[in-house]
Write a sequence for this structure.
């Protein structure tokens, strides 16, 4: 059944997130991207808490987290998480975390947890507050992959990880997804990871949902064109955004506006290209929506 | 969740509370802070008291040191923002934790009293009750603050989420009351001559404390456990009995 978010809104001081509306089928990875302050973390935490008191609904595998009590317990049991801010108490050891928090999850596999701690080279007997940020992230990784969850929430997990631990994380995510009925919801500013791993993209801008689409379908709608400044000038009317360098220029265009015979190279864009050229040019959401609807730049 | 699962859940929460307390205890008692506190304790109270048995400031320091110690132990609390726990579970956790902290305070005060007694101090029975009451007020205050201010990350508040708006005024009154009581008892303990009318002062604080306790006991009812049900809470044993009857 996957993850279904319907008309979700969240009000927080002067910031309003929403309405957010999307349905992520089982077995797919969703990348959530946007500028700082676009509402990624608010959405992320609301989904993790199952908090819908300002309106709308969030369902994981058909279970609603909006109601307190047993429903919330059942909802949260389906969630695993690796968060930038360490979510557990830091006065205990890594082993204690398994002992204290593990029993709250069904099918928590203590042996697997200890095995992962060992694999990730985490000292068992050191208290959390003595460990580095990267180590704490690894403890979270070991915990998250030691019980049977339906959705894995990753909030900037790799920012403090070394390349070896990053590789381990990608491998664990791969294994996690193998079962086919799970989802990963991933927020990061390192969009290269999403280029590799994400199946769907949710783009937020100033608290509004701008895009929810299959990544490949979204990317295939755009192309990066490269050439001299003069060459790009010839395509000026079709450029959504451009960057002029000393030796060459590049710009983002809609695929359907092609072919682009004046360009030296026409390439598939990365998520970063998309974000930078769509938002870097300070386009308003309305303008962007027009672009999406094929009304041109 | 059937009632056996509910009992299991409560057991897990109790275990979590014990483990957290133990971790905090180890952190404080076996750590450098504890050595510092011990040195303060010796330096500020025991030694001056032995030299000058009538020194009230020394007794005040004893009171202060215990307060610092217990306040430190009250600082840490469980992290359960993301855990599969309902509001009811969190309230239960805080209750278990608070009760244990009260027990600790009694224990610490008792041990301190024995030490004082061994040193020939006579102040315990004069000040002891006030000190103990002060500690109880501290833990009550902490416990309710934890309940009141239990904040989820990014500013989402337990209070906003779980307590009906009409009750918030009562909570604010309670909090102001508890802070005033806390500082009043501290001032009495530290700066006033407790040998005079000590029993009356202790009685007054006891009464104030009881009002506070009643407030806290009522606090659980302020929390909206289930948005869709205004029905009074039933104990799990009552539910179990009902299930048996239904069977």
């Amino acid at each position: 059944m996957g993850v279904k978010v319907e008309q979700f809104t969240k009000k927080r001081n002067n910031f309003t997130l929403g309405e957010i509306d999307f349905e992520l089928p089982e077995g797919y990875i969703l990348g959530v991207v946007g500028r700082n302050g676009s509402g990624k973390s608010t959405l992320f935490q609301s989904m993790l808490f199952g908090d819908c008191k300002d309106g709308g609904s969030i369902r994981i595998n058909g279970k609603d987290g909006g109601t307190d009590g047993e429903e919330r317990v059942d909802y949260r049991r389906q969630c695993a998480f690796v968060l930038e801010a360490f979510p557990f108490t830091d006065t205990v050891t890594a082993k204690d975390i398994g002992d204290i928090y593990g029993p709250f999850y069904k099918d928590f596999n203590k042996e697997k947890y200890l095995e992962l701690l060992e694999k990730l080279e985490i000292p068992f007997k050191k208290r959390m507050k003595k460990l580095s940020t990267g180590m704490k992230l690894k403890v979270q990784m070991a915990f998250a992959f030691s019980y049977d969850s339906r959705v894995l929430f990753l909030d900037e997990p790799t920012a403090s990880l070394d390349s070896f631990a990053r590789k381990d994380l990608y491998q664990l995510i791969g294994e996690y997804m193998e079962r086919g009925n799970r989802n990963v919801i991933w927020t990061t500013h390192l969009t290269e990871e999403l280029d590799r791993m994400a199946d769907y993209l949710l783009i937020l801008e100033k608290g509004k949902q701008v895009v929810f689409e299959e990544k490949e379908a979204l990317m295939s709608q755009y192309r990066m064109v490269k050439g001299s400044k003069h060459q790009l000038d010839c395509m000026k009317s079709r450029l959504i955004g451009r960057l002029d360098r000393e030796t060459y220029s590049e710009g983002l265009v809609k695929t359907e506006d092609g072919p682009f015979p004046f360009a030296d190279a026409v390439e598939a864009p990365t998520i970063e290209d998309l974000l930078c050229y769509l938002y870097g040019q300070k386009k308003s959401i309305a303008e962007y929506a027009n672009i999406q609807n094929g009304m041109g730049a | 969740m059937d009632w056996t699962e509910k009992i299991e859940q409560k057991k897990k929460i109790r275990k979590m509370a014990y483990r957290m307390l133990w971790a905090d205890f180890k952190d404080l008692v076996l750590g450098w802070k504890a050595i510092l506190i011990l040195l303060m304790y010796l330096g500020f109270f025991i030694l001056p008291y032995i030299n000058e048995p009538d020194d009230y400031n020394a007794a005040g320091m004893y009171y202060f040191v215990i307060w610092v110690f217990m306040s430190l132990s009250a600082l840490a609390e469980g992290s359960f923002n993301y855990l599969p726990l309902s509001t009811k579970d969190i309230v239960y956790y805080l209750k278990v934790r608070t009760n244990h902290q009260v027990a600790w305070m009694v224990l610490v005060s008792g041990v301190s009293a024995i030490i004082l007694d061994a040193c020939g101090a006579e102040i315990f029975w004069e000040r002891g009750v006030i000190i103990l009451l002060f500690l109880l007020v501290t833990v009550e205050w902490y416990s309710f603050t934890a309940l009141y201010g239990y904040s989820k990350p990014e500013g989402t508040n337990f209070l906003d989420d779980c307590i009906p708006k009409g009750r918030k005024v009562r909570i604010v009154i309670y909090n102001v009351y508890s802070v005033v009581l806390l500082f009043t008892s501290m001032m009495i303990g530290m700066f006033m001559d407790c040998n005079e009318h000590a029993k009356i002062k202790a009685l007054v604080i006891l009464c104030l404390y009881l009002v506070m306790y009643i407030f806290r006991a009522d606090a659980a009812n302020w929390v909206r456990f289930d948005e869709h049900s205004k029905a009074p809470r039933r104990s799990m044993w009552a539910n179990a009995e009902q299930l048996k009857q239904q069977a």
In short: Residues 87-118 of chain B form the longest helix (32 residues). The two ends of chain B are 17 Å apart (CA to CA).
